[in-house]
Structures are given as C-alpha cells and as structure tokens.
C-alpha cells in the first residue's frame, strides 16, 4: 500500500543524504590539499580528474572518490554542485520529482 511506497521513497531520501555526506568528505579532502573547493565550473568532476579550467589546483592529489564515475542520487540523476567562490558550496539533489522545489518526498535534498 501507500505506507510501503512511502517507506521505499524515504529509504531513497536517506541513501541520497548518505551520498551527499560522502561527497562532502571528498570535497573536504580536496580543500585540504588545494586550499579551496572546486568552482561551479570545475564541478564535482574535480574529485575524479584534475581540473583544467579556472584556478588549476597545484596540489591536486586525487582521485578523491572511488570508481570512475560520479555518484548519482537515488533517482539516477546527477547531483548539482554550486560553489561561487571556492570557500563554500552546496550539493543539491532534486529529489523524487526531478524538478526544483517540491514538498515531502519530492523536496530537494541539500548539503547545507
């Protein structure tokens, strides 16, 4: 019934939050080596491959994630990554509905 569906969707939300925490850990290690987070332009891909745009990190010592691909959220969508100045960032999953905003199980999931 509905309860079982909600439970499965809640598990997806929890798994997505765990993925975000893993990305946060990798981003912190990146910052430790490079004194800043990747820019929005460099994106999360900077955790896998040394950036070739923007401020090129001299001390890049990655990859900072296992595997060759960036993780996706529980709905098989890429995470959005925004960092205006390299001092802070936000990681966003658009949630179950795949669009900005939403409520309940369709709500966006943010790192902040």
**Total discrete domains:** 1
Give a short account of the largest sheet: 3 strands, antiparallel
Q: Briefly note the CATH topology name.
A: Glycoprotein, Type 4 Pilin
Number of strands: 3
Looking at this structure, what is the CATH superfamily?
A: Glycoprotein, Type 4 Pilin
How far the N terminus sits from the C terminus, by CA atoms, comes to 33 Å
Q: Quickly name the level 1 CATH class.
A: Alpha Beta
The SS-based structural class is alpha+beta
Order of strands, main sheet, comes to 1-2-3
Q: Flag low-confidence runs.
A: none
Q: Total helix count?
A: 1
Shape descriptor reads elongated
Strand-and-helix sequence, N→C? HEEE
Second rung of CATH, namely the architecture:
2-Layer Sandwich
Radius of gyration: 15 Å
Give a description of the structure.
With 112 residues, the chain is an alpha+beta fold. Helices cover 29% and strands 8% of the residues. It has a single domain (2-110), classed as Glycoprotein, Type 4 Pilin. It contains one helix and three strands; from the N terminus they run αβββ. Strands 1-2-3 form a three-stranded antiparallel beta sheet, covered by helices on one side. β1 (80-82) and β2 form a beta hairpin.
Quick take:
This protein has one domain: Glycoprotein, Type 4 Pilin. The chain is 29% helix and 8% strand.
Considering the chains and any ligands shown, give keywords for the structure.
112 residues; alpha+beta; Glycoprotein, Type 4 Pilin; 3-stranded antiparallel beta sheet; 1 helix; 29% helix; 8% strand; elongated
Provide the fold topology.
Blueprint: H1 2-34, E1 80-82, E2 90-93, E3 109-110
């Amino acid at each position: 019934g509905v309860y079982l569906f909600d439970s499965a969707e809640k598990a997806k939300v929890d798994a997505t939050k765990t993925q975000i925490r893993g990305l946060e850990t990798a981003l912190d290690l990146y910052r430790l080596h490079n004194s800043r987070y990747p820019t929005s332009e460099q994106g999360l891909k900077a955790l896998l491959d040394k950036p070739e745009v923007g401020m090129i990190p001299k001390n890049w010592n990655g990859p900072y994630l296992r595997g060759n691909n960036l993780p996706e959220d529980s709905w098989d969508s890429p995470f959005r990554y925004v960092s205006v100045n390299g001092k802070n960032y936000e990681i966003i999953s658009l949630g179950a509905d795949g669009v900005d905003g939403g409520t309940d199980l369709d709500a966006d999931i943010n790192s902040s």
